[in-house]
Design goal:
Order of helices and strands of chain A: HEEHHHHHHHE
Oligomer: heterodimer
Number of helices of chain B: 18
Number of helices of chain A: 8
Largest sheet of chain A: 3 strands, antiparallel
Strand content of chain A: under 5%
Radius of gyration of chain B: 30 Å
Helix content of chain B: 25-40%
Distance between the termini of chain B: 78 Å
Radius of gyration of chain A: 20 Å
Shape of chain A: elongated
Helix content of chain A: 55-70%
Mean pLDDT of chain B: 87
Structural class of chain A: mainly alpha
Mean pLDDT of chain A: 86
Strand content of chain B: 5-15%
Chain lengths: 219, 588
């Protein structure tokens, strides 16, 4: 659907001077609904963990469970979208320019050096982003989903003999560890959205889809 | 009592509650057919009755009169006992009535004599321990021996006043105490005899037991009721609600909030009597607190013959509700039913005990008994609620209402400390021990009442002592306030030595909490257990990972450290950006 939408978009994939259409409609929908679900799950999850008592334990569990199902559904659509559009390639890791990116964040940014990475529709993530998202996909996600689904289906453990080799304790520990990783990622991720050429540039582009590209002359 | 501000909006459908429970959604079609069948049956009965009514108006009037005057009983029973000439009386004693009963119900007395209601004796098949009321001790009145004439008013027989009682005499079985429908009472002191003439007791006291009209009682015989069972089971320990905490006379007229099963249908309950769950078969009654069914991981079973032959306890929650009773949305993945692996139903569904307005005893200290006024008169002290908290005859009491139970792992096995066991001063003597651990597949987390006692033991022989207390004579403590005399008499009756030197030792007794099941809206909320150990009902009970209570300390430490590090890093980075941006505003 989004491919159709983007293909009929007058500017789709074309580089209008100064602006590119970088985040397609489905992608933006995915990003923000996922953001809402992850925030919901962080809040409710840490209540289930005992860190606060905002909603009441029972409501937190129900919301957490419903958000998990919603996110699963969202992911099902998103995986489909990634493969049909070929967007999955955006997550292939590269070490090229990683050092330059790291130097930019640690040093160059404060001295006004230009961003070492030029975003394009084909390569919308910088090398550090690629690595971070791959780590999220390959490590944190399996940890959270694996432990989370085991947690959710606890009632069926005896039927499949799972309780002979696994305890809820270990599952909860793994899930909590994953949650801390996700929270840490979330903090850094939100902060890095402010590191565009203006503090809100990245956020705007995730809302509208359009990203201002630096004037070639500025480099 | 029902809350008058809450009008009853929902009335249970007129089908049997148990069937309703056993049926699943898929059986709804069957229920409709079943109801349709019932309606047709009713119509055909009415139709067949009509021609008779038309041909014989007098008979019709008689039928109508019977239907109007004696409705449910006449419809339910095939025998009207008031018409039996054998039951016209007069009867001089309970035994005379029993002889009439067993003239027709030939096996009834022998059936009763095979039960603990008669023998007060029981060998625990799991432990081999000899138990039963005859030998067991408790932390309340302590023991029945030497006090039989008093305690045995709750024996299902007539005249057990000492060891000479004939346990083989069928006529001694008391049918009426369980099957009467009113007007029958066996006062404490008469060894289970029923007074048929006005009797002064204790002799010379000026207090009288009123006589019971046995013929009237016998003619109105019926099924056991909540009140007949309760006439003994509510009053264990010498008063209403004293022992159990979840059994007291408030259940006779339970509100829905007090007990969703025992409340009448008019009150919005299920209208159960005790025997609805505690099903009997040949006078054997399901359910026991000495060998309990702590877990029953099976589906519901149908009532009837199979209950007793199935090897399962009919009195468990699961025998009607099954072990997966909660209906939840598919997305919740059996979240609540999963709790049945660890919890007894009662842990959530009996939120507190002694909820019906009758206080239960939580502690009894015998060591302070015997304080008298300067004139030598016994005293009684009451608290603000009118509950007796000190009695010269008994000592100090603590009472409780709406008591939150304690919770422990329990597999159904109970062992008792008897007089055979050596006890040592210094530690609390556990009068009974509930066994079970988290690793035991039969164990579940159970709610219990923990009762604290302080009772006499022999300093030389090191065993618990049974005092003679209750019957008026020159050694009973309640009449003489003389411990050595009372303990000597008790020791003689129990066949245990008394050295003449005694002291009082702290004891503890557990009572399973299983009655007073609240409506589901009043079951525990998740957060009453799922919270920090200080607030959690389960406290720091081991053997279960309880989300919101438990965590791995290092995962939490490292996790929060990572979160803090990220926040700090981000803050420093942002600050650096702000500072450098000011210094070189033209940079970008």
């Amino acid at each position: 659907m989004s491919t159709i939408a983007s293909s009929i978009h007058p500017d789709a994939g074309t580089a209008t001077p100064g602006r590119i259409y970088i985040f397609k409609r489905y992608e933006r929908f995915w990003h923000w609904s996922q953001a809402a679900l992850i925030i919901t799950m962080l809040v409710t999850g840490f209540e289930v963990h005992g860190s606060h008592q905002l909603l009441g334990f029972g409501r937190a569990v129900r919301l957490h469970t419903l958000a998990a199902w919603a996110l699963l559904l969202l992911w099902a659509f998103t995986i489909f979208w990634q493969f049909t559009t070929g967007e999955w390639r955006q997550y292939l890791p590269t070490l090229k320019k990683v050092d330059a990116m790291a130097r930019y964040y640690a040093w160059g940014m404060f001295r006004g050096t230009p961003h070492p990475y030029q975003k394009t529709v084909q390569r919308k993530h910088n090398p550090l982003q690629r690595l971070a998202y791959l780590a999220l996909l390959a490590m944190v996600s399996p940890l959270i989903w694996g432990s989370g689904l085991l947690y959710l289906f606890r009632a069926f453990w005896p039927q499949f003999g799972v309780d002979r080799w696994l305890t809820l304790e270990w599952v909860a520990w793994a899930h909590t560890a994953g949650a801390f990783m996700m929270l840490t990622f979330f903090i850094v991720h939100v902060y890095l959205t402010t590191t565009g050429h203006t503090p809100t540039a990245h956020i705007k582009s995730m809302i509208t889809g359009w990203e201002d590209v630096d004037e070639p002359g500025a480099h | 009592m029902a809350d008058p501000t809450h009008p009853q909006l929902w009335a249970p459908p007129p089908c049997d509650a148990i069937h309703r429970l056993a049926w699943t959604g898929a059986d709804r079609r069957w229920r409709r057919r079943w109801l349709a069948g019932l309606v047709m049956l009713g119509l055909s009965t009415a139709a067949s009755a009509l021609p008779v009514a038309a041909s014989a108006p007098g008979a019709a009037a008689a039928v109508a009169a019977v239907a109007a005057s004696a409705p449910s009983k006449a419809l339910r029973s095939t025998a009207d006992h008031s018409k039996f000439k054998e039951l016209q009386g007069p009867f001089q004693s309970g035994e005379e009535v029993t002889k009439v009963c067993i003239g027709c119900h030939t096996e009834a007395a022998r059936q009763v004599m095979g039960t603990r209601h008669w023998t007060w004796e029981y060998t625990n098949p799991q432990t081999g321990q000899k138990l039963g009321k005859k030998t067991m001790l408790n932390s309340f009145c302590i023991g029945d021996r030497s006090n039989e004439a008093f305690c045995q008013s709750c024996h299902v027989g007539y005249g057990w006043k000492d060891a000479s009682f004939d346990f083989k005499a069928e006529s001694k079985v008391d049918c009426l105490v369980c099957h009467h429908t009113g007007g029958y009472k066996k006062p404490a002191g008469l060894a289970g005899e029923v007074p048929t003439v006005r009797t002064e007791y204790p002799p010379g006291s000026g207090k009288f037991f009123e006589p019971v009209d046995l013929a009237r009682v016998a003619q109105a015989i019926g099924k056991t009721s909540t009140a007949t069972c309760g006439s003994c089971h509510y009053y264990g320990g010498g008063g209403d609600g004293v022992k159990h905490g979840d059994l007291d006379s408030s259940l006779n007229r339970a509100s829905r909030e007090l007990d969703v099963h025992m409340a009448s249908k008019a009150q919005g309950g299920a209208g159960f009597s005790c025997a609805t769950c505690h099903q009997s078969d040949g006078h054997k009654i399901a359910g026991s607190r000495i060998t309990m069914t702590a877990s029953d991981p099976h589906g519901p079973m149908l009532r009837g013959d199979s209950v007793h032959n199935s090897g399962r306890n009919a009195a468990s929650c699961q025998s009607c509700h099954g072990d997966k009773p909660h209906k939840q949305g598919l997305l919740q993945v059996e979240l609540l039913n999963n709790h049945t692996n660890k919890l007894a139903c009662q842990s959530c569904h009996v939120p507190a005990f002694a909820r019906g307005g009758v206080a239960t005893k939580m502690a009894w200290d015998w060591s302070t008994a015997g304080r008298l006024t300067p004139e030598g008169k016994p005293i009684q002290k009451k608290d603000a609620h009118g509950h007796v908290i000190y009695d010269s005859r008994k000592g100090d009491f603590k009472l409780g209402e709406n008591v939150v139970p304690e919770y422990l792992w329990f597999n159904g096995r109970v062992t008792y400390t008897t007089q055979e066991d050596k006890i040592r001063g210094g530690s609390v003597v556990k009068i009974n021990t509930f066994h079970g651990s988290p690793d035991d597949p039969a164990a579940r987390i159970w709610p219990v009442k923990r009762f604290q006692g302080k009772q006499p033991y022999d300093l030389v022989h090191g065993h618990l002592l049974v005092p003679h207390t209750a019957t008026p004579d020159d050694s009973a403590f309640w009449f003489n306030f003389d411990w050595p005399k009372a303990l000597q008499a008790g020791a003689e009756a129990t066949g245990k030595a008394y050295s003449g030197r005694h002291d009082f030792i702290a004891t503890e007794m557990l009572w399973p909490i299983t009655h007073m099941v609240a409506p589901k809206e009043q079951a525990l909320r998740c957060s009453q257990c799922h919270t920090g150990a200080a607030q959690s009902r389960l406290g720091s009970l081991a053997g279960v990972y309880l989300p919101a209570r438990d965590a791995h300390p290092w995962i939490d430490r490292i996790g929060w450290l990572a979160v803090l590090a990220a926040l700090a890093g981000v803050a420093v980075h942002a600050l650096a950006r702000i500072v450098t941006a000011r210094r070189s505003p033209a940079a970008h």
